[in-house]
């Protein structure tokens, strides 16, 4: 894509944190010494600070003291700084360079580029370095069993020996073996955690790089996804967010143990070599057992990969629908469609859980196959050894058992690693597919040419649907010294391609033939205003250098000063996502102000006048001719005919059946053309340029159309309005925080409450199930310990002369029985736990969805969509797949440690005396560490939400960002947010390494103590018992490490349940159904009465309705007008109970609406909203999501009456004969123009036979002729209904029975429109401005 540099050099990054990559922010790791690096002491200050603040919190809780969050828990400012080669900017640059290199190489070979190859090229070196540490660790693991064999031979020689001590049985020799075991364990600890640290860093790098690649790619593809040119499936915003939220995360998680793919076979190989040294060729029997399992494991892995791929596809669909549902939650509440969308999401979720169950069963089978491998290998080996080599000695038995324990880890981890590798591979393929998708060609810039040049340019949509037939026109570039902007006005009926033309000019569509060139900097206002979650000022300045005088001039020119006076903090007031706390007119004017402030060479304005009232539209037209825009050329697409009188060039787009360029003259030509413009013609669906010329030529060719824009004798110049001076002395920037809308996400402090675990257990199946699982795990681990004790007893009594002689057959039968019983206990418990955990997954999602759909609109006004999506994506994913594994692993390792301690204490009772102080130190270390770890994970979770929010916001505004040339600024802002999240993750995994080094050191001391006690008691302890004690002590090092690691992971993962439960406890809106709801005929008449209604949207905001009293008779047609922000839409909000009135009452057919269930009320009122919304799916679903229509004829009749049937029929023909009702609607209805979407909303209204109809600017985005057709339809179809119509076009409400004029939330005047026109009324003035 050819990116256009902005004209001005003052573009800055005011919304981006300064210094995130500053060299001054040095990482502690970079300055740490060698010893500190080996022991991770450089992390200690962070962990100590977390512990100290937790202490202060506990003391304050006891004393009931108050204090800030920073006093009692770690905060973002305490996080460790990243190393300079780990900052997102450096990672992004490396990843992009590597991806481009790999893409170029793949293009030469005509193959799809490999993302993994690119990532390895960029970040492979430290990961390869980690392989060296892993190789060293695996090799050192063999030292323990080797030294153990010599130690047990020593103990066997000393056991029962009487008389003087010989050199063969000296204390020094025995202690030498014990010290060697201690040194070996210490070296393994140091090497292992250097390996882990590099693996976690690599995973972090890959995650950040993939987020950067996906974010950058999303700015280079059409809207929210790929194109249909190559036949690829259209990508939605939800799917792209999923690539970032889930797929990049899977890649990060997989890196931790990916080296097991080669180290596992290596460990198995060297273990078998040592087994051969210990048990001879009998180890071949064990090898044969493992070889027989490999084909089965491979087959299961293949099914796991397929199941994972299908699971991710369903997850994409769920996130997409979730994104759509909560992105349009206001519409869902207006229509009362929450239950329908809840059912839709539940159906998708059930498919996901069904696939997840299949996936978990396959994982259980895979784990079972690998878990039986050590048992079957040991049985086969001991059986053959006993048959060919004779008696089993303690040295042989426990060295073999120790080696089998070493073997157990790679055999246990290998299936998990394969699963992770499969998941990562699926994610990599999905990322590759997205990153390889076609990009838009971008603008073709001609720096020295005209602002716009089209020569025989033919346009079509990405799916090959014709858009505009070959056209030719030119827009001159601004010249130095011109007094006003050159204005080109593009007119045309709904669906004639006006918005498509602008998309082509900004580079989103490429001409099929001909040429299209633009020059200079560009500004763009889309038809649906794109508003950021930022202050009014930041939305207008939009990363440019702030100039106060220019800012004030823009606010004044765009008629925003009176609006700012009503906002709590002026232009420092924070605007919610998608402008939730603004009216439609305010959003459109802020969007326009952004373009005006930029003073770009070329301004593309897509119908900015549609959502504003007439006198504001008049002022905006005056602004287009003012010196403020003298350095620009403007292309204005509009339905406002009066705009032609200020135009230097007029372009009329038509879809007429006949070519009227040469034949259409007279006063009927224009009307005929515009009325036929939206209809299908013999010439095909593409529109054409019916006229292109100056205003005098337009007047000559279309006299009637030209006359529609001005009254006879009126000059085309626009006169100054005195109302413009209303906010003349307004100071836009106020101090204070009253304007803050979006609240900071609450971060919990302290340990996770016990009732959070209780909540999860109850959701999974209750305490009976939890106790069953706990007992099952303890029994399984206990049986494993008994099996070890049996080997000890067997080896001590394997000689025939022993009075308690045990034959090889009996020994093998006992060992196999106990081992298989232990395996069955663990396997059954694991299967039970994992499958019932799906019940918790279902429960949490269902409850979260049900709660979120029933929260009041005030919550969504103050909560970013990304924060909501984070709950439904990352947190639900953790509950689905991560938490159950961690909880079960935690139970397993705790049980293993308990059983190990019991075995060692039984073998050497003095061990208890030594181990108790060590356990106290161990516990103190754990308590010292967990406060920091827990809080770091919470901070990381909270810092992930801003990434989601910014990403979702960017996807909605990609076209505008590209038009302004601000891709790099938004990429930098994304990097800033990723940087904050990475610092939390880096701090978290570094602190894990600090803990692991210390715990494994304690484990080594426990092994040292067990060995020392055995050596000290060498004359009174049997070699079998000593072997049992020391071999179990060797295994406890890793077990203790895993206990605390799993405890930390348990707390950090259960935070997802805590975060979901936080939303489950929010206060819900009133019930949807009440026992007092009137029976279905209500409302039979449709009378409405407002009695002294006061309304404010939130307690801290001013009232928007101030004592409104209004009585509307049954079947009366009421028009509601007033300037932007007067409270017009608030009447609809209070009538539908989107927000309940603070005081006063509203009655419908003499029933107070506060006594009704929300759905009973909202299903009884028909609404055509200001912002038309369509959902991805079929046309049928969009018209009738509740499936209330009994036949297709009803749907077609509604489409015909809303003047949309011809377009739908054309869609059916384009879809190769498929029913038009089954036509695909893309995300947010992007394959329909805004006017067509409003016509679709009219069709919905026609299907609902209710006594009351509410229209909120329902025809603001259609031309006047289509407006007249729709108004005629409303007049005919709703003649016996009560109609409340909010409109900016006074002509729209002139046929009303009465007109209500609002001002500052009060009823300014009311009466029949003709009576008000005869007086010097507010309405008469508005009507005069509209007629002009």
UniProtKB/TrEMBL annotation:
Q: Which GO terms describe its cellular component?
A: vacuolar membrane
Q: Which Pfam families match?
A: ABC_membrane (PF00664), ABC_tran (PF00005)
> Where's it mainly located?
membrane
Membrane protein topology class? Multi-pass membrane protein
The GO terms describing molecular function are: ABC-type transporter activity; ATP binding; ATP hydrolysis activity
Sequence intervals crossing the membrane: 174-196, 260-279, 285-304, 361-382, 388-407, 767-793, 813-836, 889-922
Q: Where is the ABC transmembrane type-1 domain?
A: 130-423, 771-1052
- SUPFAM superfamilies, alphabetically? ABC transporter transmembrane region, P-loop containing nucleoside triphosphate hydrolases
Which ranges carry the ABC transporter domain?
A: 459-680, 1088-1329
Q: Which UniProt keywords are listed?
A: ATP-binding, Membrane, Nucleotide-binding, Repeat, Transmembrane, Transmembrane helix, Transport, Vacuole
| Compartments where located | Vacuole membrane
Organism domain of life: Eukaryota
Q: What is this protein called?
A: Multidrug resistance-associated protein 1
Q: Which organism is it from?
A: Cladocopium goreaui
């Amino acid at each position: 894509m050819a990116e256009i540099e902005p004209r001005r050099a003052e573009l800055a990054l005011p919304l981006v944190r300064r210094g995130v990559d500053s060299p001054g922010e040095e990482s502690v790791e970079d300055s740490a010494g060698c010893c500190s690096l080996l022991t991770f002491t450089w992390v200690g200050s962070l962990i100590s600070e977390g512990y100290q603040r937790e202490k202060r919190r506990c003391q304050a809780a006891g004393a009931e003291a108050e204090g800030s969050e920073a006093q009692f828990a770690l905060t973002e400012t305490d996080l460790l700084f990243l190393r300079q080669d780990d900052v997102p900017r450096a990672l992004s640059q490396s990843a992009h360079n590597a991806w481009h290199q790999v893409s170029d190489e793949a293009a030469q070979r005509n193959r799809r580029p490999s993302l993994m190859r690119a990532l390895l090229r960029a970040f492979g070196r430290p990961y390869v370095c980690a392989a060296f540490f892993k190789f060293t660790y695996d090799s050192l693991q063999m030292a323990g069993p080797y030294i153990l064999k010599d130690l047990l031979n020593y103990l066997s020689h000393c056991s029962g020996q009487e008389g003087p001590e010989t050199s063969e049985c000296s204390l020094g020799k025995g202690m030498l073996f014990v010290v060697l075991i201690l040194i070996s364990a210490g070296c393994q600890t140091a090497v292992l955690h250097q390996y882990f640290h590099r693996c976690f860093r690599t995973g972090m790098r890959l995650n950040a790089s993939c987020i950067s690649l996906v974010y950058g790619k999303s700015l280079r593809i059409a809207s929210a996804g790929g194109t249909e040119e190559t036949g690829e499936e259209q990508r939605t915003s939800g799917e792209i967010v999923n690539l970032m939220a889930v797929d990049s995360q899977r890649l990060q998680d997989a890196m931790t143990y990916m080296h097991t793919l080669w180290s596992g076979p290596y460990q198995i190989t060297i273990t078998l070599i040592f087994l051969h040294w210990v048990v001879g060729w009998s180890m071949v029997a064990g090898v044969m057992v493992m070889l027989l399992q490999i084909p089965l494991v491979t087959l299961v892995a293949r099914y796991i990969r397929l199941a994972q791929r299908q699971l991710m596809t369903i997850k994409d669909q769920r996130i997409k629908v979730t994104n759509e549902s909560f992105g349009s939650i206001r519409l869902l509440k207006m229509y009362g469609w929450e239950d329908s969308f809840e059912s839709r999401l539940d159906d998708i979720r059930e498919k996901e859980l069904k696939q997840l169950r299949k996936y978990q069963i396959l994982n259980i089978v895979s784990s079972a196959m690998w878990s039986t491998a050590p048992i079957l290998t040991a049985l086969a080996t001991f059986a053959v050894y006993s048959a060919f080599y004779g008696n089993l000695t303690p040295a042989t038995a426990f060295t073999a058992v120790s080696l089998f324990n070493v073997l157990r880890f790679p055999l246990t981890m290998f299936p998990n690693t394969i699963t992770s590798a499969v998941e990562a591979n699926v994610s990599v393929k999905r990322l590759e597919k997205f990153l390889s998708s076609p990009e838009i060609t971008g603008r073709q810039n001609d720096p020295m040419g005209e602002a716009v040049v089209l020569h025989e340019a033919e346009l079509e949509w990405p799916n090959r649907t014709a858009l505009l037939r070959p056209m030719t026109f030119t827009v001159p570039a601004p010249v130095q010294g011109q007094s006003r902007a050159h204005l080109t006005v593009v007119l045309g009926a709904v669906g004639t391609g006006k918005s498509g033309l602008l998309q082509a000019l900004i580079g989103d569509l490429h001409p099929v033939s001909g040429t299209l060139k633009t020059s200079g900097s560009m500004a763009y206002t889309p038809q649906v205003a794109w508003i950021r979650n930022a202050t009014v000022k930041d939305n207008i300045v939009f990363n440019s250098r702030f100039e106060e005088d220019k800012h004030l001039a823009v606010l004044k020119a765009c008629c925003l000063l009176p609006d700012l006076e009503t906002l709590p903090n002026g232009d420092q007031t924070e605007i919610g996502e998608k402008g939730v706390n603004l009216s439609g007119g305010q959003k459109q004017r802020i969007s326009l102000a952004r373009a005006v402030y930029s003073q770009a060479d070329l301004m593309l304005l897509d119908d900015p006048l549609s959502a504003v009232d007439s006198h504001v539209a008049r002022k905006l037209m005056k602004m287009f001719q003012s010196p403020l825009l003298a350095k620009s050329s403007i292309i204005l697409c509009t339905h406002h005919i009066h705009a032609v009188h200020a135009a230097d060039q007029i372009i009329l787009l038509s879809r007429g059946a006949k070519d009227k360029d040469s034949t259409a003259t007279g006063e009927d030509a224009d009307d005929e053309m515009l009325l036929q413009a939206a209809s299908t013609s013999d010439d095909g669906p593409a529109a054409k340029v019916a006229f292109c010329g100056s205003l005098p030529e337009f007047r000559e060719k279309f006299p009637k159309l030209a006359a529609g824009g001005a009254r006879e004798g009126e000059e085309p110049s626009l006169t100054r309005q005195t109302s413009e001076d209303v906010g003349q002395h307004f100071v836009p920037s106020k101090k204070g925080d009253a304007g803050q809308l979006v609240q900071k996400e609450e971060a919990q402090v302290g340990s996770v409450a016990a009732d959070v675990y209780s909540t999860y257990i109850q959701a999974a199946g209750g305490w009976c199930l939890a106790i069953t699982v706990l007992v099952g795990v303890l029994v399984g681990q206990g049986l494993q310990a008994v099996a070890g004790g049996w080997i000890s007893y067997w080896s001590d009594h394997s000689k025939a002369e022993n009075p308690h002689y045990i034959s090889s057959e009996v020994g093998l039968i006992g060992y196999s029985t106990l081992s298989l019983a232990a395996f069955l206990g663990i396997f059954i418990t694991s299967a039970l736990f994992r499958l019932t955990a799906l019940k918790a997954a279902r429960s949490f999602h269902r409850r979260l969805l049900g709660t979120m759909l029933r929260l009041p609109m005030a919550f969504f006004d103050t909560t970013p969509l990304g924060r909501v999506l984070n709950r439904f994506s990352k947190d639900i994913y953790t509950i689905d797949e991560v938490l159950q594994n961690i909880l079960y692993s935690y139970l397993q390792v705790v049980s293993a440690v308990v059983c190990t301690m019991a075995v060692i204490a039984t073998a050497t009772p003095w061990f208890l005396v030594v181990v108790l102080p060590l356990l106290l130190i161990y516990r103190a270390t754990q308590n010292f560490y967990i406060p920091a770890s827990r809080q770091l994970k919470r901070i990381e979770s909270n810092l992930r939400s801003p990434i989601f929010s910014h990403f979702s916001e960017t996807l909605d505004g990609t076209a505008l960002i590209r038009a302004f040339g601000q891709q790099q600024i938004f990429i930098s802002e994304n990097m800033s947010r990723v940087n904050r999240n990475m610092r939390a993750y880096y701090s978290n995994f570094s602190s894990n390494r600090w803990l692991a080094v210390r715990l494994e050191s304690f484990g080594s001391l426990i092994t040292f103590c067990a060995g020392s006690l055995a050596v000290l008691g060498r004359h009174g302890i049997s070699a079998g018992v000593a072997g049992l004690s020391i071999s179990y002590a060797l295994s406890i090092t890793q077990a203790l490490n895993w206990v605390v690691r799993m405890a930390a992971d348990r707390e950090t993962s259960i935070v997802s349940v805590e975060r979901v439960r936080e939303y489950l406890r929010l206060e819900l809106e009133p019930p949807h159904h009440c026992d007092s709801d009137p029976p279905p005929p209500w409302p039979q008449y449709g009378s409405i009465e407002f009695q002294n209604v006061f309304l404010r949207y939130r307690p801290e905001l001013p009232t928007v309705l101030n004592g409104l009293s209004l009585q509307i008779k049954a079947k009366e047609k009421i028009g509601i007008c007033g300037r932007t922000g007067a409270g017009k839409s608030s009447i609809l909000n209070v009538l539908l109970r989107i927000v309940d009135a603070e005081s006063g009452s509203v009655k419908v057919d003499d029933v107070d609406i506060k006594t009704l269930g929300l759905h009973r009320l909202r299903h009884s009122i028909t609404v055509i909203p200001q912002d038309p919304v369509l959902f991805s799916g079929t046309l049928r679903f969009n018209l009738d999501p509740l499936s209330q229509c009994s036949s297709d004829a009803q749907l077609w009749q509604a489409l015909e009456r809303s003047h949309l049937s011809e377009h739908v029929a054309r869609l059916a023909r384009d879809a190769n004969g498929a029913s038009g009702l089954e036509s695909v609607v893309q995300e947010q209805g992007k394959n329909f123009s805004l006017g067509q979407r409003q016509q679709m909303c009219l069709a919905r209204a026609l299907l609902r036979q209710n006594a009351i109809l509410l229209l909120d600017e329902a025809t603001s985005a259609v031309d006047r002729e289509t407006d007249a057709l729709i108004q005629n339809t409303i007049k005919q179809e709703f003649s016996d209904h009560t109609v409340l119509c909010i409109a900016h076009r006074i002509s729209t409400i002139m046929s009303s029975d009465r007109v209500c004029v609002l001002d500052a939330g009060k009823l300014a005047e009311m009466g029949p429109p003709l009576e008000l026109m005869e007086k010097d009324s507010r309405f008469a003035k508005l009507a005069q401005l509209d007629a002009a």
